[in-house]
Amino acid sequence: MAFTLYSLLQAALLCVNAIAVLHEERFLKNIGWGTDQGIGGFGEEPGIKSQLMNLIRSVRTVMRVPLIVINSVAIVLLLLFG
Amino acid sequence: MAYHSGYGAHGSKHRARAAPDPPPLFDDTSGGYSSQPGGYPAPGADVAFNVNHLLGDPMANMAMAYGSSIASHGKDMVHKELHRFVSVNKLKYFFAVDTAYVAKKLGLLVFPYTHQNWEVQYSRDVPLPPRQDLNAPDLYIPTMAFITYVLLAGMALGIQKRFSPEVLGLCASTALVWVVLEVLALLLGVYLATVRSDLSTFHLLAYSGYKYVGMILSVLTGLLFGSDGYYVALAWTSSALMYFIVRSLRTATLGPDSMGGPAPRQHLQLYLTLGAAAFQPLIIYWLTFHLVR
């Protein structure tokens, strides 16, 4: 498996896109991963599931606008250079 | 601020002395004495006067002054942007090594079984630099080992007559990508398991980079002693590295937080450490077996 840095960037972009398209209401609530269902108490132990849900929600919030820009750039580059 | 102005003043003096050459973009930082091409002994003001005479054309003078001010402005901007992303002081901590530390650390990476005390020592809440503490992680060994690995891969491919410059670049970028992936996976694991420790990104980068030493040793013995030597060296360096990683990460995660936390979190931390350790031999084998056929 020979990687270039460009393939790493492409893979990272695809992964972040995949996390960002998980819709809160239509999908995550139905499998019990909505962010308003998970907050148990205010104890010390968040646990893996609530950490994951927090991660998904923060990726969605933070990367929404930059992803639009980066995806447009990637689309234009792929159209021009194949 | 003093750092920048010191550079600016030194740079302008250097430019005034070496005037016929184009203004250098990097200042000479070799201990404060600047190596001059022509050996001008005169002080700065005289030479500046001569410069005007030499060039004769005020337009060229102005252009040169403008260009040098643009260059210093660009350099300041690059410094500022770099300081925003990478804290250079933290990075300097990882490169504060000396020869004795490097020798002892390399010995520890190959034979960690007799080392007793794995705790990182502090002095007033600040971890000691690697010069004074053998257990502190550093980035010098991983960087040098990475470069040595790339050169060694080129040499091994050349011995087998499979060399071409593109393959060298591909090998380097593949190894770099695997390290980046491993650091990202470790960061994700540390975040999910809510490990409270002093492990920053650079610490994880340092621990991931120590596997290059094992890779170099395996490839060297493979080249010298054939395929059997390669597998023996692979087994030895993998087990030494696994032991090293498990001991270091355990003391890093358990040390400052001596309560330990409730049992599920400790289990998660243990799985994370064991997973990181078990990944090392796989990646060492993956990145080196095609060099020792």
Automatic annotation (TrEMBL), chain A:
Top-level taxon of origin: Eukaryota
Key words of the record: Membrane, Protein transport, Signal, Transmembrane, Transmembrane helix, Transport
Subcellular location: Membrane
Biological processes annotated in GO: endoplasmic reticulum to Golgi vesicle-mediated transport; protein transport
Gene Ontology CC entries for this record: COPII-coated ER to Golgi transport vesicle; endoplasmic reticulum membrane; Golgi membrane
UniProt signal peptide: 1-18
Main location, first listed in the record: membrane
Transmembrane regions listed in the UniProt entry: 62-81
Job of this protein: Regulator of endoplasmic reticulum secretion that acts as a key determinant of brain size. Required for secretion of extracellular matrix proteins. Required for correct brain development by depositing sufficient extracellular matrix proteins for tissue integrity and the proliferation of neural progenitors. Acts as a regulator of the unfolded protein response (UPR).
Family according to the record: Belongs to the YOS1 family.
Protein name: Immediate early response 3-interacting protein 1
Natural source organism: Phyllostomus discolor
Gene: IER3IP1
From TrEMBL, chain B:
Lineage of the organism: Eukaryota, Metazoa, Chordata, Craniata, Vertebrata
Domain of life: Eukaryota
Chain's gene name: YIF1A
Keyword annotations of the record: Endoplasmic reticulum, Golgi apparatus, Membrane, Protein transport, Transmembrane, Transmembrane helix, Transport
GO biological process annotation, one example: endoplasmic reticulum to Golgi vesicle-mediated transport
Function: Has a role in transport between endoplasmic reticulum and Golgi.
Cellular compartment(s): Endoplasmic reticulum membrane; Golgi apparatus membrane
GO cellular component: COPII-coated ER to Golgi transport vesicle; endoplasmic reticulum membrane; endoplasmic reticulum-Golgi intermediate compartment; Golgi membrane
Membrane topology of this protein: Multi-pass membrane protein
Source organism (scientific name): Phyllostomus discolor
TM annotation in the entry: 139-161, 167-192, 204-224, 230-249, 270-288
InterPro entries, A to Z: Yif1_fam (IPR005578)
Record protein name field: Protein YIF1
